[in-house]
Design goal:
It contains one helix and no strands.
Length: 82
């Protein structure tokens, strides 16, 4: 009877070890996938930052163009006097 219990315990331990190995493999895969997602998120953040920089440049250019147009309109006396 004791031998049967020992064999049963060993079988359970082997099954647990196998399951634990599977969990470890799946966890390793999940870590890789999360790392990949983090890298992608970082690239997206950089892309968004670049877009914000480009928008700031466009706004600056538009402000300069607006100032030039106002100056031209004043020289040509196209603006109403207020």
């Amino acid at each position: 009877m004791t031998e049967n219990i020992e064999n049963l315990i060993l079988e359970h331990l082997k099954a647990i070890r196998g399951d634990l190995g599977n969990v470890h493999a799946e966890l390793s895969e999940l870590k890789l996938r999360v790392s990949s997602l983090e890298e992608r998120a970082t690239l997206i953040e950089r892309g968004v930052a670049n877009v914000h920089g480009d928008i700031a440049i466009v706004h600056s250019r538009l402000d300069r163009i607006d100032a030039r147009i106002e100056r031209i309109e004043r020289r040509l006396e196209l603006t109403p006097v207020s």
